[in-house]
Amino acid sequence: NAGVTQTPKFQVLKTGQSMTLQCAQDMNHEYMSWYRQDPGMGLRLIHYSVGAGITDQGEVPNGYNVSRSTTEDFPLRLLSAAPSQTSVYFCASSYSGRETYEQYFGPGTRLTVT
Amino acid sequence: QLLKQSPQFLSIQEGENLTVYCNSSSVFSSLQWYRQEPGEGPVLLIALYKAGELTSNGRLTAQFGITRKDSFLNISASIPSDVGIYFCAGRPTSYDKVIFGPGTSLSVIP
Q1: How does pLDDT run across A60-92, given as a tens digit for each residue?
Q2: How close does chain B come to A109, measured CA to CA in Å?
């Protein structure tokens, strides 16, 4: 199993550009989520999904869109990049049931917006 | 932030024991402890589900508070490879999402 994979590893965007961060898992996990990590702020939840076709907002959803058309993939779209979105983005997935919230993380995408 | 952690930074000598605390004004259905090494994603250390539950994983011990609003993580006989950022994370009652605390950065002096 590859686990949770994220692409790209690094990205530089100009203000106003849009892009999609890719996340895929091969563990047949129902639950997937996106976090951003900024110094001193821990990980803040952007969006999450409890299964294909179902998504919901987390703590900091503004400026981001998600969709979940398959169990395996959960892409995160930045609509119009802003410098405040410079961060490290982590995707995570987990089993359903009692272990639903024990999350497996990808390696992260380091995004810089200039 | 819904989850608070203390201390924010911790520097100890190799071989010492340490405790990290996590608390909230909200009730959580479950709570987990993760460790993150530089340049990596967090990795699950311990998961807690029942009020008062005490769980160990090698040199790590964690307990979920009776009120389900707090927890601690204890690491005994620290070693240099324990360095990293330790996060508590939990699912607030009636929600199906997981939120993280701000983290505790640990350094171990050989």
Answers
A1: 999 999 999 999 999 999 999 999 999 999 999
A2: 10
